[in-house]
Amino acid sequence: MAERLALIAKYALGLAMAGIIYAMFLVVPQYVGLGDAGRIIIVHVPTAWVTSAAFALSAIYSIVYLRTRSPLHDASAVSAAEVGMLFCIFATVTGAIFAEVVWGTFWNWDPRETTILVLLLIYAAYFALRSSIDDGARRRRLSAVYNIFACVTMPFLLFVAPRVADSTLHPNCAFLQGSKCEGVSLDLNGAKISQLGDVVVELKAVEQVGDMTRAVVEVRMPGLTEYADLAPTMDSEGKAADRPEFPGQSFRMILIEADPQAGTARVNMQAPGTGLLSNQRTLWVFLASNVTFGLLALWIYRIRATILQVSARLQTTEAF
Amino acid sequence: MNNSLLWRATKAVFVREVRSELRSRQALNAVALFAVCSIVAVSIGLGPLNRSAELPLIHAALVWIVLLFAAFTALARVFVVEEEQRTAAALRLAAPVHAVYLGKLLFNLVLLVALTLLVAVLAVVLLRMQVKAPTAFAVMLAAGSLGLVTGTTLIAAIIARASSRSTLFAVLSFPLLIPLLVTAVRGTALALAGAGWDRCLAPIQTLLAYAVAMFVTSLFLFATVWED
User: Fold this and answer.
1) Fewer beta carbons under 10 A from the terminal one: N or C of chain B?
2) Of A199, A186, A179, which Cα lies nearest the Cα of A258?
3) What are the chain B neighbours of A122 within 8 Å (beta carbons)?
4) Facing residue for A160 by CB, picked from B182, B225, B227
5) Mind telling me how many Å the CA of B183 is from chain A's nearest CA?
6) How many CB pairs under 8 A join A and B?
7) How large is the ipTM?
Protein backbone atom coordinates (compact mmCIF):
# COMPACT_ATOMS: atom_id res chain seq x y z
CA MET A 1 0.00 0.00 0.00
CA ALA A 2 2.71 2.43 1.05
CA GLU A 3 4.73 1.53 -2.03
CA ARG A 4 1.68 2.19 -4.19
CA LEU A 5 1.21 5.62 -2.60
CA ALA A 6 4.88 6.48 -3.06
CA LEU A 7 4.64 5.56 -6.74
CA ILE A 8 1.54 7.72 -7.20
CA ALA A 9 3.22 10.60 -5.36
CA LYS A 10 6.25 10.27 -7.64
CA TYR A 11 4.19 10.49 -10.81
CA ALA A 12 2.12 13.35 -9.36
CA LEU A 13 5.31 15.25 -8.64
CA GLY A 14 6.56 14.68 -12.18
CA LEU A 15 3.27 15.92 -13.62
CA ALA A 16 3.26 18.96 -11.32
CA MET A 17 6.81 19.85 -12.39
CA ALA A 18 5.83 19.58 -16.05
CA GLY A 19 2.78 21.72 -15.32
CA ILE A 20 4.91 24.40 -13.68
CA ILE A 21 7.24 24.54 -16.67
CA TYR A 22 4.26 24.76 -19.03
CA ALA A 23 2.66 27.51 -16.96
CA MET A 24 5.93 29.40 -16.69
CA PHE A 25 6.10 29.86 -20.45
CA LEU A 26 2.44 29.85 -21.50
CA VAL A 27 0.25 30.96 -18.58
CA VAL A 28 2.30 33.67 -16.88
CA PRO A 29 1.91 37.00 -18.74
CA GLN A 30 4.84 39.17 -19.77
CA TYR A 31 5.80 41.82 -17.30
CA VAL A 32 6.17 45.47 -18.31
CA GLY A 33 9.85 46.40 -18.22
CA LEU A 34 11.13 42.83 -18.01
CA GLY A 35 9.42 41.12 -20.95
CA ASP A 36 9.88 37.37 -21.20
CA ALA A 37 12.83 37.46 -18.79
CA GLY A 38 10.40 38.04 -15.90
CA ARG A 39 9.19 34.44 -16.23
CA ILE A 40 12.37 33.22 -14.56
CA ILE A 41 10.94 34.23 -11.19
CA ILE A 42 8.93 30.97 -11.32
CA VAL A 43 12.14 28.92 -11.10
CA HIS A 44 14.65 31.31 -9.57
CA VAL A 45 12.90 32.34 -6.37
CA PRO A 46 11.60 28.90 -5.27
CA THR A 47 15.02 27.29 -5.80
CA ALA A 48 16.62 30.06 -3.74
CA TRP A 49 14.14 29.46 -0.92
CA VAL A 50 14.68 25.70 -1.03
CA THR A 51 18.43 26.39 -0.82
CA SER A 52 18.12 28.39 2.40
CA ALA A 53 15.74 25.87 3.95
CA ALA A 54 17.99 22.92 3.08
CA PHE A 55 21.13 24.58 4.47
CA ALA A 56 19.29 25.54 7.66
CA LEU A 57 18.11 21.91 8.00
CA SER A 58 21.68 20.72 7.49
CA ALA A 59 22.96 22.97 10.28
CA ILE A 60 20.17 21.81 12.62
CA TYR A 61 21.02 18.14 11.95
CA SER A 62 24.69 18.91 12.61
CA ILE A 63 23.76 20.23 16.07
CA VAL A 64 21.55 17.18 16.66
CA TYR A 65 24.40 14.93 15.54
CA LEU A 66 26.82 16.43 18.05
CA ARG A 67 24.24 15.78 20.80
CA THR A 68 23.27 12.23 19.83
CA ARG A 69 26.39 11.07 17.90
CA SER A 70 24.13 8.92 15.76
CA PRO A 71 25.46 8.40 12.20
CA LEU A 72 21.85 8.59 10.99
CA HIS A 73 21.64 12.27 11.94
CA ASP A 74 24.92 12.91 10.18
CA ALA A 75 23.50 11.25 7.07
CA SER A 76 20.53 13.65 7.26
CA ALA A 77 22.86 16.64 7.60
CA VAL A 78 24.89 15.59 4.55
CA SER A 79 21.84 14.89 2.40
CA ALA A 80 20.32 18.26 3.30
CA ALA A 81 23.62 19.99 2.44
CA GLU A 82 23.75 18.14 -0.90
CA VAL A 83 20.19 19.12 -1.80
CA GLY A 84 20.98 22.69 -0.75
CA MET A 85 24.09 22.72 -2.95
CA LEU A 86 22.17 21.41 -5.96
CA PHE A 87 19.44 24.03 -5.67
CA CYS A 88 22.00 26.73 -4.81
CA ILE A 89 23.78 26.14 -8.11
CA PHE A 90 20.42 26.19 -9.87
CA ALA A 91 19.39 29.49 -8.25
CA THR A 92 22.78 31.07 -8.96
CA VAL A 93 22.80 30.07 -12.63
CA THR A 94 19.20 31.14 -13.32
CA GLY A 95 19.88 34.39 -11.48
CA ALA A 96 23.04 35.08 -13.49
CA ILE A 97 21.26 34.43 -16.79
CA PHE A 98 18.45 36.77 -15.78
CA ALA A 99 20.98 39.40 -14.69
CA GLU A 100 22.75 39.24 -18.06
CA VAL A 101 19.47 39.63 -19.98
CA VAL A 102 17.94 42.39 -17.87
CA TRP A 103 20.79 44.20 -16.12
CA GLY A 104 23.47 43.61 -18.77
CA THR A 105 25.92 41.82 -16.49
CA PHE A 106 26.21 38.27 -15.23
CA TRP A 107 27.50 39.37 -11.85
CA ASN A 108 26.71 42.58 -10.03
CA TRP A 109 27.93 41.92 -6.43
CA ASP A 110 24.57 42.82 -5.09
CA PRO A 111 23.80 41.57 -1.55
CA ARG A 112 21.94 38.41 -2.51
CA GLU A 113 24.59 37.46 -5.05
CA THR A 114 27.31 37.94 -2.44
CA THR A 115 25.52 35.85 0.19
CA ILE A 116 24.69 33.00 -2.19
CA LEU A 117 28.30 32.92 -3.44
CA VAL A 118 29.57 32.63 0.14
CA LEU A 119 27.04 29.85 0.82
CA LEU A 120 28.34 27.98 -2.24
CA LEU A 121 31.92 28.38 -0.97
CA ILE A 122 31.03 27.27 2.57
CA TYR A 123 29.33 24.06 1.47
CA ALA A 124 31.97 23.33 -1.15
CA ALA A 125 34.47 23.57 1.73
CA TYR A 126 32.21 21.35 3.85
CA PHE A 127 32.32 18.61 1.19
CA ALA A 128 36.08 19.10 0.71
CA LEU A 129 36.57 18.62 4.46
CA ARG A 130 34.45 15.45 4.47
CA SER A 131 36.37 13.94 1.60
CA SER A 132 39.76 14.49 3.24
CA ILE A 133 39.11 12.70 6.54
CA ASP A 134 39.23 8.91 6.35
CA ASP A 135 38.04 7.92 9.79
CA GLY A 136 34.21 7.83 9.82
CA ALA A 137 33.46 9.06 13.33
CA ARG A 138 36.05 11.83 13.09
CA ARG A 139 34.73 12.92 9.68
CA ARG A 140 31.20 13.19 11.02
CA ARG A 141 32.27 15.07 14.14
CA LEU A 142 34.58 17.61 12.48
CA SER A 143 32.25 18.35 9.57
CA ALA A 144 29.39 18.93 12.01
CA VAL A 145 31.58 21.38 13.93
CA TYR A 146 32.45 23.21 10.71
CA ASN A 147 28.81 23.37 9.65
CA ILE A 148 27.82 24.99 12.97
CA PHE A 149 30.83 27.33 12.99
CA ALA A 150 29.98 28.52 9.47
CA CYS A 151 26.40 29.15 10.54
CA VAL A 152 27.57 31.64 13.17
CA THR A 153 29.08 33.88 10.48
CA MET A 154 25.79 34.14 8.55
CA PRO A 155 24.31 37.09 10.53
CA PHE A 156 27.52 39.03 9.91
CA LEU A 157 27.38 38.20 6.23
CA LEU A 158 23.78 39.40 5.97
CA PHE A 159 24.82 42.61 7.70
CA VAL A 160 27.95 43.17 5.63
CA ALA A 161 26.75 42.09 2.17
CA PRO A 162 24.78 45.28 1.39
CA ARG A 163 28.04 47.19 1.89
CA VAL A 164 29.96 45.34 -0.82
CA ALA A 165 28.14 47.09 -3.64
CA ASP A 166 26.25 50.35 -3.45
CA SER A 167 23.12 49.09 -5.08
CA THR A 168 20.96 46.10 -5.61
CA LEU A 169 18.62 45.37 -8.44
CA HIS A 170 16.70 42.75 -6.50
CA PRO A 171 13.16 43.95 -5.94
CA ASN A 172 13.08 44.43 -2.19
CA CYS A 173 12.84 47.78 -0.46
CA ALA A 174 14.94 46.69 2.52
CA PHE A 175 17.95 45.96 0.30
CA LEU A 176 17.43 48.80 -2.18
CA GLN A 177 19.68 51.62 -1.02
CA GLY A 178 17.81 54.88 -0.98
CA SER A 179 14.46 53.22 -1.05
CA LYS A 180 12.28 53.58 2.01
CA CYS A 181 9.65 50.90 2.34
CA GLU A 182 6.92 53.52 2.72
CA GLY A 183 8.33 56.02 0.19
CA VAL A 184 8.57 59.77 0.76
CA SER A 185 5.64 62.16 1.04
CA LEU A 186 5.83 65.48 -0.79
CA ASP A 187 3.51 68.45 -0.37
CA LEU A 188 3.29 71.37 -2.85
CA ASN A 189 2.26 73.70 -0.02
CA GLY A 190 4.73 72.40 2.52
CA ALA A 191 7.70 70.04 2.40
CA LYS A 192 8.03 69.67 -1.35
CA ILE A 193 11.68 68.66 -1.33
CA SER A 194 12.94 65.38 0.09
CA GLN A 195 15.47 62.66 -0.57
CA LEU A 196 15.36 59.09 -1.80
CA GLY A 197 18.80 57.89 -0.74
CA ASP A 198 21.20 60.37 -2.32
CA VAL A 199 18.73 61.51 -4.97
CA VAL A 200 16.99 64.81 -4.22
CA VAL A 201 13.34 64.88 -5.29
CA GLU A 202 11.21 68.00 -5.59
CA LEU A 203 7.49 67.98 -6.31
CA LYS A 204 6.59 70.39 -9.13
CA ALA A 205 2.93 69.58 -9.77
CA VAL A 206 0.14 67.10 -9.10
CA GLU A 207 -2.57 67.07 -11.74
CA GLN A 208 -5.53 65.10 -13.00
CA VAL A 209 -5.18 64.03 -16.66
CA GLY A 210 -8.32 62.22 -17.75
CA ASP A 211 -8.77 59.43 -15.22
CA MET A 212 -5.06 59.31 -14.49
CA THR A 213 -3.31 61.24 -11.74
CA ARG A 214 0.10 62.53 -12.66
CA ALA A 215 2.84 63.94 -10.48
CA VAL A 216 5.71 65.93 -11.91
CA VAL A 217 8.84 65.45 -9.84
CA GLU A 218 12.23 66.99 -10.48
CA VAL A 219 15.08 64.65 -9.55
CA ARG A 220 18.65 65.77 -8.96
CA MET A 221 21.16 62.95 -9.13
CA PRO A 222 24.11 62.77 -6.65
CA GLY A 223 26.73 65.44 -7.27
CA LEU A 224 24.11 67.36 -9.28
CA THR A 225 25.38 65.54 -12.38
CA GLU A 226 21.95 65.20 -13.91
CA TYR A 227 18.56 66.86 -13.56
CA ALA A 228 15.35 65.46 -14.94
CA ASP A 229 11.62 65.93 -14.63
CA LEU A 230 9.93 62.58 -14.10
CA ALA A 231 6.19 62.17 -14.43
CA PRO A 232 4.97 58.97 -12.76
CA THR A 233 1.21 58.33 -13.07
CA MET A 234 -1.43 56.40 -11.25
CA ASP A 235 -4.88 55.21 -12.41
CA SER A 236 -8.21 55.94 -10.71
CA GLU A 237 -7.93 52.82 -8.54
CA GLY A 238 -4.60 53.98 -7.10
CA LYS A 239 -2.48 51.52 -9.09
CA ALA A 240 0.81 52.87 -10.43
CA ALA A 241 0.87 53.15 -14.23
CA ASP A 242 3.87 54.97 -15.75
CA ARG A 243 7.11 54.28 -13.89
CA PRO A 244 9.80 56.49 -15.44
CA GLU A 245 13.45 55.55 -14.96
CA PHE A 246 15.84 57.69 -12.94
CA PRO A 247 18.40 59.19 -15.34
CA GLY A 248 21.38 56.88 -15.81
CA GLN A 249 20.00 54.15 -13.53
CA SER A 250 17.88 51.03 -13.82
CA PHE A 251 15.61 52.14 -10.98
CA ARG A 252 12.18 53.55 -11.57
CA MET A 253 10.02 56.12 -9.83
CA ILE A 254 6.63 54.95 -8.71
CA LEU A 255 3.67 57.03 -7.55
CA ILE A 256 2.03 55.45 -4.51
CA GLU A 257 -0.49 58.09 -3.46
CA ALA A 258 -1.54 61.41 -4.94
CA ASP A 259 -4.16 64.04 -4.20
CA PRO A 260 -4.42 66.81 -6.85
CA GLN A 261 -6.71 68.97 -4.67
CA ALA A 262 -4.42 68.96 -1.65
CA GLY A 263 -1.29 69.01 -3.81
CA THR A 264 0.33 66.04 -2.10
CA ALA A 265 2.05 62.96 -3.52
CA ARG A 266 3.97 59.98 -2.18
CA VAL A 267 6.70 58.52 -4.39
CA ASN A 268 9.25 55.77 -4.02
CA MET A 269 12.20 54.22 -5.78
CA GLN A 270 11.67 50.79 -7.29
CA ALA A 271 13.78 48.13 -8.96
CA PRO A 272 12.44 46.54 -12.14
CA GLY A 273 10.50 43.45 -11.16
CA THR A 274 8.80 44.88 -8.07
CA GLY A 275 5.11 44.12 -8.26
CA LEU A 276 5.62 41.12 -10.53
CA LEU A 277 3.42 39.08 -8.22
CA SER A 278 0.52 41.54 -8.19
CA ASN A 279 -0.74 39.70 -11.28
CA GLN A 280 -3.09 36.91 -10.11
CA ARG A 281 -1.98 34.34 -12.68
CA THR A 282 1.70 34.92 -11.90
CA LEU A 283 1.02 34.76 -8.18
CA TRP A 284 -0.75 31.39 -8.34
CA VAL A 285 1.83 29.82 -10.65
CA PHE A 286 4.54 31.18 -8.35
CA LEU A 287 2.93 29.67 -5.23
CA ALA A 288 2.40 26.33 -6.98
CA SER A 289 6.01 26.43 -8.12
CA ASN A 290 7.20 26.98 -4.55
CA VAL A 291 5.23 23.96 -3.33
CA THR A 292 6.43 21.77 -6.21
CA PHE A 293 10.10 22.69 -5.85
CA GLY A 294 9.81 22.20 -2.09
CA LEU A 295 8.37 18.70 -2.61
CA LEU A 296 10.99 17.90 -5.25
CA ALA A 297 13.76 18.90 -2.81
CA LEU A 298 12.14 16.82 -0.08
CA TRP A 299 11.95 13.82 -2.42
CA ILE A 300 15.63 14.07 -3.42
CA TYR A 301 16.55 14.56 0.24
CA ARG A 302 14.57 11.47 1.32
CA ILE A 303 16.20 9.24 -1.30
CA ARG A 304 19.71 10.47 -0.51
CA ALA A 305 19.22 10.30 3.26
CA THR A 306 17.84 6.76 3.02
CA ILE A 307 20.84 5.59 0.97
CA LEU A 308 23.33 7.21 3.37
CA GLN A 309 21.52 5.89 6.44
CA VAL A 310 21.46 2.35 5.08
CA SER A 311 25.18 2.52 4.34
CA ALA A 312 25.84 3.94 7.84
CA ARG A 313 23.83 1.07 9.38
CA LEU A 314 25.78 -1.47 7.30
CA GLN A 315 29.06 0.00 8.52
CA THR A 316 28.00 -0.22 12.18
CA THR A 317 26.91 -3.84 11.79
CA GLU A 318 30.17 -4.69 10.04
CA ALA A 319 32.09 -3.18 12.92
CA PHE A 320 30.58 -5.66 15.38
CA MET B 1 38.05 23.78 37.43
CA ASN B 2 38.66 27.14 39.00
CA ASN B 3 39.75 30.12 37.00
CA SER B 4 43.28 30.61 38.26
CA LEU B 5 44.09 26.99 37.41
CA LEU B 6 42.78 27.44 33.87
CA TRP B 7 44.74 30.65 33.50
CA ARG B 8 47.94 28.97 34.72
CA ALA B 9 47.48 26.09 32.29
CA THR B 10 46.75 28.53 29.46
CA LYS B 11 49.92 30.43 30.27
CA ALA B 12 51.89 27.19 30.29
CA VAL B 13 50.59 26.22 26.84
CA PHE B 14 51.34 29.71 25.53
CA VAL B 15 54.89 29.77 26.97
CA ARG B 16 55.52 26.31 25.51
CA GLU B 17 54.41 27.53 22.06
CA VAL B 18 56.62 30.59 22.27
CA ARG B 19 59.59 28.56 23.44
CA SER B 20 59.34 25.95 20.72
CA GLU B 21 58.84 28.71 18.15
CA LEU B 22 61.92 30.58 19.34
CA ARG B 23 63.91 27.36 19.07
CA SER B 24 62.97 26.60 15.47
CA ARG B 25 61.78 30.05 14.26
CA GLN B 26 59.97 28.22 11.46
CA ALA B 27 56.69 30.12 11.60
CA LEU B 28 58.33 33.50 12.18
CA ASN B 29 60.76 33.15 9.27
CA ALA B 30 58.14 31.81 6.88
CA VAL B 31 55.59 34.48 7.71
CA ALA B 32 58.00 37.40 7.72
CA LEU B 33 59.46 36.40 4.36
CA PHE B 34 56.02 35.80 2.94
CA ALA B 35 54.90 39.28 4.01
CA VAL B 36 58.01 40.94 2.58
CA CYS B 37 57.75 39.04 -0.71
CA SER B 38 54.09 39.77 -1.25
CA ILE B 39 54.36 43.48 -0.42
CA VAL B 40 57.40 43.81 -2.69
CA ALA B 41 55.59 41.92 -5.44
CA VAL B 42 52.56 44.17 -5.13
CA SER B 43 54.69 47.34 -5.10
CA ILE B 44 56.67 46.28 -8.17
CA GLY B 45 53.55 45.18 -9.96
CA LEU B 46 51.71 48.41 -9.38
CA GLY B 47 54.55 50.91 -9.49
CA PRO B 48 53.93 54.31 -7.90
CA LEU B 49 50.18 54.98 -7.80
CA ASN B 50 48.70 58.41 -8.40
CA ARG B 51 46.70 60.03 -5.62
CA SER B 52 43.03 59.53 -6.26
CA ALA B 53 39.82 59.18 -4.30
CA GLU B 54 39.99 55.40 -4.54
CA LEU B 55 43.62 55.04 -3.46
CA PRO B 56 42.86 54.44 0.27
CA LEU B 57 40.49 51.62 -0.69
CA ILE B 58 43.09 50.06 -3.00
CA HIS B 59 45.78 50.27 -0.31
CA ALA B 60 43.47 48.85 2.35
CA ALA B 61 42.46 45.95 0.10
CA LEU B 62 46.11 45.15 -0.73
CA VAL B 63 47.16 45.23 2.93
CA TRP B 64 44.34 42.92 3.96
CA ILE B 65 44.91 40.49 1.10
CA VAL B 66 48.58 40.20 2.11
CA LEU B 67 47.57 39.74 5.77
CA LEU B 68 44.97 37.14 4.86
CA PHE B 69 47.33 34.98 2.85
CA ALA B 70 50.17 35.34 5.34
CA ALA B 71 47.69 34.22 8.01
CA PHE B 72 46.74 31.21 5.88
CA THR B 73 50.38 30.12 5.80
CA ALA B 74 51.07 30.75 9.49
CA LEU B 75 48.06 30.22 11.70
CA ALA B 76 47.41 26.52 11.05
CA ARG B 77 50.87 25.55 12.32
CA VAL B 78 50.01 25.52 16.02
CA PHE B 79 47.82 22.44 15.64
CA VAL B 80 49.41 20.84 12.56
CA VAL B 81 52.76 20.65 14.36
CA GLU B 82 51.18 18.63 17.19
CA GLU B 83 50.00 16.02 14.70
CA GLU B 84 53.25 15.97 12.72
CA GLN B 85 55.44 15.54 15.78
CA ARG B 86 52.89 13.19 17.37
CA THR B 87 52.68 15.26 20.53
CA ALA B 88 48.91 15.78 20.43
CA ALA B 89 48.18 12.80 22.69
CA ALA B 90 50.64 14.04 25.30
CA LEU B 91 49.13 17.51 25.21
CA ARG B 92 45.67 16.00 25.59
CA LEU B 93 46.78 14.30 28.80
CA ALA B 94 48.78 17.21 30.15
CA ALA B 95 46.53 20.23 29.66
CA PRO B 96 42.80 20.90 30.12
CA VAL B 97 40.86 21.34 26.85
CA HIS B 98 40.16 25.05 27.11
CA ALA B 99 43.70 25.85 28.17
CA VAL B 100 44.96 24.27 24.94
CA TYR B 101 42.60 26.40 22.86
CA LEU B 102 43.26 29.63 24.75
CA GLY B 103 47.04 29.14 24.81
CA LYS B 104 47.22 28.49 21.08
CA LEU B 105 44.82 31.34 20.36
CA LEU B 106 47.06 33.72 22.33
CA PHE B 107 50.13 32.52 20.47
CA ASN B 108 48.42 32.97 17.10
CA LEU B 109 47.31 36.44 18.17
CA VAL B 110 50.84 37.49 19.10
CA LEU B 111 52.16 36.07 15.81
CA LEU B 112 49.51 37.86 13.76
CA VAL B 113 49.98 41.19 15.57
CA ALA B 114 53.71 41.04 14.83
CA LEU B 115 52.90 40.21 11.21
CA THR B 116 50.38 43.07 10.97
CA LEU B 117 52.94 45.53 12.31
CA LEU B 118 55.47 44.36 9.74
CA VAL B 119 52.99 44.55 6.86
CA ALA B 120 51.78 48.00 7.90
CA VAL B 121 55.34 49.39 8.08
CA LEU B 122 56.28 47.80 4.74
CA ALA B 123 53.12 49.18 3.13
CA VAL B 124 53.91 52.68 4.37
CA VAL B 125 57.49 52.46 3.10
CA LEU B 126 57.18 50.51 -0.14
CA LEU B 127 53.61 51.19 -1.24
CA ARG B 128 53.79 54.80 0.01
CA MET B 129 50.56 54.28 1.86
CA GLN B 130 49.44 57.49 3.60
CA VAL B 131 47.79 57.03 6.99
CA LYS B 132 45.78 60.13 7.84
CA ALA B 133 44.21 58.78 11.05
CA PRO B 134 46.95 56.65 12.68
CA THR B 135 45.07 55.78 15.89
CA ALA B 136 41.94 54.65 14.04
CA PHE B 137 44.17 52.73 11.60
CA ALA B 138 45.93 50.92 14.46
CA VAL B 139 42.66 50.08 16.22
CA MET B 140 41.16 48.85 12.94
CA LEU B 141 44.14 46.55 12.27
CA ALA B 142 44.08 45.27 15.87
CA ALA B 143 40.33 44.53 15.78
CA GLY B 144 40.69 42.89 12.35
CA SER B 145 43.59 40.71 13.53
CA LEU B 146 41.56 39.66 16.55
CA GLY B 147 38.72 38.58 14.28
CA LEU B 148 41.10 36.81 11.90
CA VAL B 149 42.64 34.81 14.76
CA THR B 150 39.36 33.88 16.47
CA GLY B 151 37.87 32.90 13.11
CA THR B 152 40.72 30.59 12.08
CA THR B 153 42.13 28.93 15.21
CA LEU B 154 39.24 26.43 15.47
CA ILE B 155 39.60 25.68 11.74
CA ALA B 156 43.30 25.02 12.36
CA ALA B 157 42.35 22.44 14.98
CA ILE B 158 39.89 20.84 12.53
CA ILE B 159 42.27 20.58 9.57
CA ALA B 160 45.11 19.19 11.72
CA ARG B 161 43.08 15.96 11.79
CA ALA B 162 42.56 15.84 8.00
CA SER B 163 44.79 15.07 5.04
CA SER B 164 45.99 17.79 2.55
CA ARG B 165 46.09 20.29 5.39
CA SER B 166 47.56 23.48 4.00
CA THR B 167 45.10 23.91 1.11
CA LEU B 168 42.18 22.79 3.23
CA PHE B 169 42.91 25.49 5.82
CA ALA B 170 42.49 28.28 3.26
CA VAL B 171 39.47 26.60 1.66
CA LEU B 172 37.64 26.22 4.98
CA SER B 173 38.62 29.59 6.45
CA PHE B 174 38.04 31.86 3.49
CA PRO B 175 34.21 31.78 3.29
CA LEU B 176 33.95 32.41 7.03
CA LEU B 177 36.34 35.37 6.81
CA ILE B 178 34.49 37.21 4.04
CA PRO B 179 32.32 39.34 6.39
CA LEU B 180 35.46 40.21 8.37
CA LEU B 181 37.45 41.00 5.26
CA VAL B 182 34.81 43.29 3.77
CA THR B 183 34.39 45.22 7.02
CA ALA B 184 38.12 45.45 7.67
CA VAL B 185 38.92 46.70 4.14
CA ARG B 186 36.19 49.37 4.22
CA GLY B 187 37.12 50.40 7.77
CA THR B 188 40.84 50.58 7.04
CA ALA B 189 40.15 52.65 3.93
CA LEU B 190 38.17 55.10 6.09
CA ALA B 191 41.08 55.35 8.55
CA LEU B 192 43.60 55.82 5.71
CA ALA B 193 41.47 58.62 4.27
CA GLY B 194 41.39 60.31 7.66
CA ALA B 195 37.74 59.85 8.60
CA GLY B 196 36.74 60.83 12.15
CA TRP B 197 35.89 58.47 14.99
CA ASP B 198 32.18 58.87 14.34
CA ARG B 199 32.60 57.03 11.03
CA CYS B 200 35.38 54.63 12.08
CA LEU B 201 33.51 53.36 15.14
CA ALA B 202 30.91 51.30 13.24
CA PRO B 203 33.40 49.03 11.42
CA ILE B 204 35.43 48.61 14.62
CA GLN B 205 32.31 47.53 16.49
CA THR B 206 31.43 45.06 13.73
CA LEU B 207 34.94 43.59 13.79
CA LEU B 208 34.86 43.22 17.57
CA ALA B 209 31.38 41.68 17.49
CA TYR B 210 32.61 39.18 14.90
CA ALA B 211 35.63 38.33 17.07
CA VAL B 212 33.46 37.83 20.17
CA ALA B 213 30.94 35.63 18.30
CA MET B 214 33.68 33.44 16.81
CA PHE B 215 35.52 33.23 20.14
CA VAL B 216 32.47 32.10 22.11
CA THR B 217 31.44 29.57 19.43
CA SER B 218 35.00 28.22 19.31
CA LEU B 219 35.02 27.75 23.09
CA PHE B 220 31.81 25.73 22.81
CA LEU B 221 32.99 23.61 19.89
CA PHE B 222 36.68 23.13 20.65
CA ALA B 223 36.18 20.26 23.12
CA THR B 224 34.40 18.31 20.37
CA VAL B 225 37.27 18.86 17.94
CA TRP B 226 40.00 18.07 20.44
CA GLU B 227 38.48 14.84 21.88
CA ASP B 228 39.78 11.55 20.53
Assistant:
1) N
2) A186
3) 175-176
4) B182
5) 7
6) 91
7) 0.92
Question: Does residue A129 contact residue B172 with C-beta atoms inside 8 Å?
Answer: yes
pTM, two decimals, is: 0.82
Sorted by where each begins, the domain ranges of chain A are 2-173+288-319, 184-270
In chain B, domain spans:
3-226
CA distance B165 to B158: 9
Nearest residue, CB atoms, B168 vs list A128, A141, A161: A128
Q: Is the pLDDT of residue A119 over 70?
A: yes
Q: Which chain A residue has the Cα nearest residue B219?
A: A149
Torsion of CA B217, B219, B221, B222, to 10 degrees: 140
The CA distance from A218 to B18, in Å, is 66
* B85-142 tens-digit pLDDT: 888 889 999 889 999 999 999 999 999 999 999 999 999 999 889 999 999 999 999 9
Asked whether B178 and B111 are in contact (CB, 8 A), the reply is no
- A238: phi > 0 → left, psi -120 to 50 → alpha, else beta; which? left
| Contact partners, residue A191, CB within 8 Å, separation at least 6 | A185
Asked if B192 and B141 touch (Cβ cutoff 8 Å), the reply is no
User: Is pLDDT of B194 > 80?
Assistant: yes
- When CB atoms are compared, the residue of A142, A155, A163 closest to B182 is A163
Instruction: Quote the mean pLDDT of chain B.
Output: 91
> pLDDT of A38-53, one tens digit each?
788 889 999 999 999 9
Best of A119, A142, A158 to mutate (most B CBs within 10 Å, chain B)? A142
